[in-house]
């Protein structure tokens, strides 16, 4: 048996608290007795066994705290003294854990307070743009990665935030990043896709959604999808997030194939990204939308469309030759739609694209370029000011559908339906309802073409959405590119 | 540090659209939604500045950690008494100390001018109010804080007034405060200067000062103030506006020492009655202890910890550790008060006194959850009192290891106000205070609550 003591000079503690902590220490293995007490004369003379009283305890004053243990051996005694100190110097309760309910903290208001509730490694920020940069900085200083959904963040702010993140070994997805999937968890606007070995980096939200759902439907799973924000690959921001994301995917054992999706980046940035991808050595497909298909190294390809990227990745995944693969879905004859087209009156030569997803809209624009087509991105600032994004609230598209049906120069209406987390709970129902109402009101024949960006596991369920669209006489295709190409064929036949 | 983003299922804090947090929670992801409000009340210039400051957050955090440790480890001990001119370096015969940031005679509020008049009469520099008003412009007015001192309400004291000496034995710095002026007559510290008040000042000088001096000489060591404050917090004091338990504990400590020092029976009797009637005696010691504590945390480069909050009845201000002795000031606000019979809001002087040094050090209104008997002052319910302490946890850097709060399961009092946290949350530090009559010489009219305005924190932010 050994008796060990420690004197904490001038540390007043309430005696009942000391008794409670003492009882806890006494339960430790190898501990016979444990006492913590203020070294008042009364405590020393009348509250303790004389055998335990060393000279140091005798010398301690009434303001001093004594920790004393009697242990089987020196080691367990020292261990107990350490625990003693810890328990006494740390506060005994955290407010939020108080189970009486009365005294618990109100909801946390800052990231720092939030960290007391949960050891978070990611902050999702969707506060108004002018405040977004400050929130991102606070989250980063709390050692959290950031998904910055907010837009209206200046390019200077974006660079400051990203440089600060790099200094801290963290990553900023965004600003204006609407989509990410981290370890199977869909964030903001994202779909429930199979887990797998493809690591995606995307500068566009719906582009990344379309790519991940196409891969999912081809049986290829996603390791992670990391958003960068639309400006990341610009000359100014210089791929700061994309390059950090590549590092993360390089070290990620689950990622075996890398996919990048973006508008064609500034040349200097494209070079850097390609260099980084080559250095990693994992097979990769860079979907630079609108760029020319190219093989730039062994197992590294540039694809011009989302579907082509999905096809090439699938080929790599399945051990086929990606070079020859450009589409995921074989294009079938559209005789049934051509029959419908023959019912249009001669003035109906225009294709109207009414899109909720930005990248999907620009993909359609690209395919229909030079034709009599007008594609509108209803998620553009011009239409969202003071309103919710059309992927959340499709009311705005309803109005445009009505307008399109009243217009006898329009023959074909092309739409996207984006489902998954974040999106409207039943966008197909809304679109079908709008189309039916417009048809009833104007009676004029129109062809409506759409695709559904989503999976069977999304809360809205892809097949259920498709059925609702088809029941409303809408022609549904397996990818946005496919749908836009059909519109293109029609345009040629009705011109 | 390697980034763990891809290595685990994400744990998320959401700020902004609540739907994102709800969907995550529905998807069995650990997610907390913040009750987010724009920092700085949404003002853009503040957000821009805050963002710039946050790029240095690592350096600031390290500095604040150091500053906080200075505060938490302080050991204030009452070691001595003496005349202001003898114990306080730089205190001359022509000095009059006052509360709060610097202020000129012309700009002083009524009660502070009243105390100055009282001090000039006490020092023999004037016979009456009229003469005193003539002499006043020739006096060197110095904020107590510039002399390492603090004084309640007007904070006024002069060269020949008895002074408490409190040493921070951990850090070696010294703080001062005049004796508590409650007693016969209206209190001097609330601007009273009449003959009753003068008689009390003379009693403190002639009787109490030499008696206490003898007591310290005989005892040979000081009186630990930290332990008295810690005990008093467990007995319902906040150690700013309620000091009954602390005064009792102090007196309990002093009686045997006074007896041992051979204090004559009639003097001991007189002192005993002073203590019996004055429930606020400990205030000046609580303040000096807080001052000795906070001064240890001064001048730590890059620290955003507030080292002083003080008010002179005209202006209020703060000082910040990393920003030297600069004051960041605003117009003194009105106190939300409870008034003695016959007085109203109209009689009240705006906020005044150095006593907010207690809140700066984590006690006073910050420890309101410990002072449940004060509940009536702060809105009526025990939950209100607890709410104050809970809120102040959101703007402070840490918790006291010594001052604990029974109603909150003995968590430490929220300690060390951080300018950045005040800006981020928009929560203004709360202060318990007495209220002086706005006219010189009329004394005390009530007590209440007041906040240090956000404006002073914004001004400090802009100079970071």
Please give a structural write-up.
The complex is a heterodimer of chains A (495) and B (464). In chain A, helix 6 runs parallel beside helix 7. Chain A has helices at residues 15-26, 41-46, 55-59, 74-89, 111-117, 129-141, 155-167, 205-217, 240-251, 267-280, 306-318, 335-341, 358-367, 381-384, 395-406, 427-442, 462-471, 480-494, and strands at 2-8, 31-38, 65-71, 122-125, 145-148, 172-173, 179-182, 185-188, 195-202, 222-227, 257-262, 284-288, 294-297, 300-303, 350-355, 373-377, 410-418, 447-453, 475-477. Helices cover 40% and strands 21% of the residues of chain A. Chain A is elongated, with a radius of gyration of 32 Å. With 495 residues, chain A is α/β, with parallel strands linked by helices. In chain A, the strands form five sheets. In chain A, strands 10-9-11-12-14-13 form a six-stranded mixed β-sheet, sandwiched between helices. Chain A has a five-stranded parallel β-sheet with strand order 16-15-17-18-19, sandwiched between helices. Chain A has a three-stranded antiparallel β-sheet with strand order 1-3-2. In chain A, strand 17 (410-418), helix 16 (427-442) and strand 18 (447-453) form a beta-alpha-beta unit. Mean pLDDT of chain A is 90; it is low at 92-104. Chain A has three domains: 2-92, Gyrase A, domain 2; 115-324, 3-Layer(aba) Sandwich (Rossmann fold), CATH 3.40.50.261; 335-494, Succinyl-CoA synthetase domains (Rossmann fold, 3-Layer(aba) Sandwich), CATH 3.40.50.261. With 464 residues, chain B is α+β, with helices and mostly antiparallel strands. Chain B has three domains: 1-36, no CATH class; 74-287, Enterococcus faecalis V583 domain (Enterococcus faecalis V583 fold); 299-462, v583 fold (Alpha-Beta Complex). Chain B has 15 helices and 18 strands. In chain B, the strands form six sheets. A four-stranded antiparallel β-sheet of chain B has the order 8-7-3-9. A four-stranded antiparallel β-sheet of chain B has the order 12-11-10-14. In chain B, helix 7 packs across helix 9 and helix 8 (225-233) runs antiparallel to helix 9. The radius of gyration of chain B is 23 Å and the shape is globular. The two termini of chain B are 28 Å apart. Classes of the chains: A alpha/beta (495), B alpha+beta (464). Chains A and B meet through helix 5, strand 4, helix 6, helix 7 and strand 8 of A and strand 1, helix 1, strand 2, helix 2 and helix 3 of B. Strand 4 (122-125) of chain A pairs parallel with strand 1 of chain B, so a sheet runs across the interface.
């Amino acid at each position: 048996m050994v008796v060990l003591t420690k004197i904490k000079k001038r540390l007043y503690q309430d005696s009942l608290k000391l008794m409670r902590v003492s009882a806890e220490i006494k339960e430790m293995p190898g501990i016979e007795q444990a006492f913590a007490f203020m070294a008042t004369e009364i405590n020393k003379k009348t509250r303790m066994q004389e055998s335990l009283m060393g000279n140091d305890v005798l010398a301690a004053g009434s303001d001093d705290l004594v920790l004393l243990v009697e242990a089987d051996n020196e080691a367990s005694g020292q261990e107990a003294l350490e625990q003693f100190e810890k328990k006494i110097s740390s506060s005994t309760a955290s407010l939020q854990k108080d189970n009486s309910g009365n005294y618990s903290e109100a909801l946390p208001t800052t990231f720092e307070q939030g960290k007391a509730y949960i050891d978070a490694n990611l902050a999702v920020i969707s506060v108004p743009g002018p405040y977004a940069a400050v929130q991102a900085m606070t989250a980063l200083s709390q050692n959290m990665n950031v998904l910055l959904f907010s837009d209206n963040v200046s390019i200077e702010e974006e660079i400051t935030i990203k440089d600060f993140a790099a200094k801290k070994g963290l990553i900023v997805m965004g600003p204006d990043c609407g989509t990410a999937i981290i370890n199977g968890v869909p964030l903001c606007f994202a779909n429930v896709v199979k887990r797998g070995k493809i690591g995606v980096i995307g500068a566009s939200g719906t582009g990344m959604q379309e790519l991940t759902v196409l891969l999912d439907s081809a049986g290829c799973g996603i390791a992670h999808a990391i958003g960068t924000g639309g400006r990341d690959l610009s000359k100014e921001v210089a791929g700061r997030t994309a390059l950090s994301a590549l590092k993360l995917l390089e070290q990620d054992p689950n990622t075996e194939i890398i996919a990048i999706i973006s508008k064609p980046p500034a040349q200097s940035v494209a070079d850097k990204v390609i260099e980084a991808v080559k250095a990693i050595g994992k097979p990769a497909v860079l979907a630079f939308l609108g760029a020319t298909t190219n093989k730039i190294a062994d197992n590294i390809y540039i694809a011009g469309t989302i579907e082509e990227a999905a096809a090439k990745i699938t080929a790599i995944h399945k051990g086929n030759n990606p070079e020859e693969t450009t589409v995921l879905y074989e294009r079938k004859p559209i005789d049934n739609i051509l029959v419908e087209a023959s019912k249009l009156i001669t003035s109906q030569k225009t294709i109207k694209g009414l899109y909720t997803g930005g990248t999907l809209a620009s993909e359609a624009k690209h395919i229909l370029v030079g034709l009599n087509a007008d594609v509108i991105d209803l998620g553009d600032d011009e239409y969202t000011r003071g309103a919710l994004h059309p992927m959340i609230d499709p009311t705005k598209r309803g109005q445009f559908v009505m307008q399109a049906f009243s217009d006898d120069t329009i023959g074909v209406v092309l739409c996207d339906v984006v489902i998954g987390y974040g999106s409207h709970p039943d966008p197909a129902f809304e679109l079908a309802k709008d189309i039916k109402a417009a048809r009833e009101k104007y009676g004029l024949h129109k062809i409506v073409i759409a695709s559904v960006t989503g999976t069977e596991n999304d809360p809205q369920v892809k097949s259920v959405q498709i059925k609702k669209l088809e029941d409303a006489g809408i022609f549904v295709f397996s990818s946005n590119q496919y749908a836009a190409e059909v519109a293109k064929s029609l345009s040629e036949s009705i011109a | 540090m390697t980034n763990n983003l891809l290595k685990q299922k994400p744990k998320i804090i959401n700020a902004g659209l609540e739907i994102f947090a709800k969907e995550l929670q529905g998807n069995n992801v650990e997610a907390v939604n913040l009750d987010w409000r724009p920092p700085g009340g949404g003002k853009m210039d503040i957000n821009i500045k805050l963002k710039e400051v946050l790029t240095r957050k690592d350096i600031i955090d390290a500095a604040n950690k150091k500053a906080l440790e200075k505060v938490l480890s302080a050991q204030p001990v009452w070691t001595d008494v003496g005349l202001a001119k003898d114990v306080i370096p730089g205190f001359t015969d022509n000095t009059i100390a006052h509360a709060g940031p610097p202020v000129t005679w012309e700009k002083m509020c009524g009660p502070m001018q009243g105390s100055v008049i009282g001090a000039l009469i006490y020092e023999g520099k004037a016979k009456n109010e009229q003469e005193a008003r003539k002499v006043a412009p020739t006096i060197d007015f110095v904020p107590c804080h510039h002399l390492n001192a603090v004084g309640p309400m007007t904070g006024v004291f002069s060269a020949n007034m008895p002074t408490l000496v409190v040493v921070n034995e951990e850090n070696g710095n010294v703080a001062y405060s005049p004796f508590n002026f409650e007693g016969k007559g209206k209190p001097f510290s609330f601007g009273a200067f009449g003959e009753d008040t003068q008689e009390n000042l003379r009693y403190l000088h002639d009787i109490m000062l030499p008696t206490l001096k003898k007591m310290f000489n005989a005892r040979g060591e000081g009186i630990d103030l930290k332990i008295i404050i810690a005990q008093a917090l467990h007995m319902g004091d906040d150690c700013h506006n309620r000091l009954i338990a602390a005064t009792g504990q102090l007196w309990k400590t002093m009686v045997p020492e006074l007896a041992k020092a051979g204090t004559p029976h009639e003097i001991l009797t007189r002192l005993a009655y002073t203590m019996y009637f004055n429930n606020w005696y400990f205030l000046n010691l609580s303040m000096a202890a807080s001052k000795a504590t906070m001064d240890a945390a001064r001048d730590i480069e890059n620290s955003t910890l507030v080292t002083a909050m003080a008010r002179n009845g005209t202006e209020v201000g703060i000082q910040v550790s990393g920003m030297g002795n600069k004051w960041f000031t605003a117009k003194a606000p009105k106190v939300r008060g409870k008034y003695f019979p016959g007085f109203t809001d109209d009689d009240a002087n705006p906020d005044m006194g150095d006593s907010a040094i207690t809140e700066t050090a984590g006690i006073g209104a910050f420890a309101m959850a410990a002072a449940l008997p004060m509940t009536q002052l702060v809105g009526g319910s025990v939950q209100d009192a607890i709410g104050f302490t809970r809120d102040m946890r959101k703007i402070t850097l840490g918790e006291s290891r010594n001052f604990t709060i029974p109603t909150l399961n003995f968590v430490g009092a929220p300690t060390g106000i951080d300018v950045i946290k005040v800006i981020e949350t928009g929560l203004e530090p709360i202060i318990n205070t007495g209220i002086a009559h706005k006219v010189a010489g009329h004394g005390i009219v009530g007590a209440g609550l007041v906040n240090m305005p956000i404006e002073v924190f914004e001004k400090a932010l802009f100079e970071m």
